[in-house]
Amino acid sequence: MQKSTKILLVLVIAALVFSDAVVVGAGAYFYQKQAKSDNGQITNLASQLKNLQTQVATLAKLPPQEIIQREVVQQKSQDQMLTEAVKQVTPAVVSVVISKDVPQLQVTYENPFGNDPMFQNLGFQIPVYQQVGTQKQKVGAGTGFIIRSDGYILTNKHVVADDTAQYTVLLSDGTQKTAQVVYKDPQNDIAIIKIDGTGYPTVQLGDSSKLQLGETVAAIGNALGEYNNSVSVGVISGLNRTIQASSDNGSTETLTGIIQTDAAINPGNSGGPLLDLNGHVVGINVATVVGSNSIGFSIPINMVKNIITTVLGK
Prior knowledge:
By secondary structure, the protein is an alpha+beta fold. The protein is 30% helix and 39% strand. The protein has helices at residues 2-60, 64-75, 78-89, 302-312; strands at residues 93-110, 126-148, 152-155, 166-170, 176-184, 191-195, 204-205, 216-223, 227-246, 252-261, 273-275, 280-288, 296-300. The protein is elongated, with a radius of gyration of 38 Å.
C-alpha cells in the first residue's frame, strides 16, 4: 500500500513538473512571437515616419501658395480646373482689330476714244473706277492679353506690323479702346500696345520651363477674327521647336525655342494666351500649320518676361 502511494505521489509530482514546463514553454513561445510582432510594427512605423519626414522636408521648400495649390489640385477634377482657369484668364483677353483708310471708289462710264469726233456717236463706253475719298475699314484682327492694370497689352508683332493702320482693342465686356503701339521686338514676334485707363483685369504669368509633354493646356483668342474669346484645349506635343513663320505680307521669320501644341490656333488667335490648368499664361500663340488642325505653336512666356521688365520698367 505504501509502495502504491509512493508511485502515485511520484506521478502527481511528475505531472505537476510537466505542466509547469509546458506553461513555461508556452509563455516563452508567446513572448517570442509577441516580440517579433512588435519589432515588425516598429519597423513599419519607422518607415512611415521616414516617408513623412521626407514629405515635410519637400513641402518646407515650397512657397505657401504652391502648397495650397497642390492641396486644391488634389481635390479638383481636370475639367473643373480647366473651367476655372479659363474663367480666371478670359476677362484679360482682348481682340485687336486692325483698320485702314482704304480708297472709296466710284464707277463712271467714259468713251475710250476720248473726244475724237469720229467715235462720238457710236455709244461705246467702258467703266472707269475713280477714287472719291477714303473709308475706314477692318482689314484684319488678332488677339492680346492685358499684363498690367494700367492698360499694357502683350500681343504678336505681326498683328501690329502695319505702321499705317489703326488698332482698336475690344475688351471682354464689349468696350472699345484705341490702342497705341509701344514696342516691337526686333528679334521675336512680340509687341506691346497700350490703351488708356486703369483698373483692367490682368493675367498671371507662369513658368514655361516647367512644361512637360502631354500636359493639358488651353488657347484663348479671337478665332478667325470673328469669334471673341474662343477656347480650344489640347496638350503640349513638343518643346524647343524651330519654325519658319510666314505672315500675310509675305515676310518670313525664324522662331526658336517654340512650344508645339495640338490646341487649335486659328487665324485671329495670334497674340492670345496659352495657359495651363492653374490659369497661368505659359505661352503666346503665334502660328499654325496651314492645312493642319492639330499643330500650333506658341512663344514660351519665359522668353518674354525680361522684355516686359525692360520695356515697362518692372
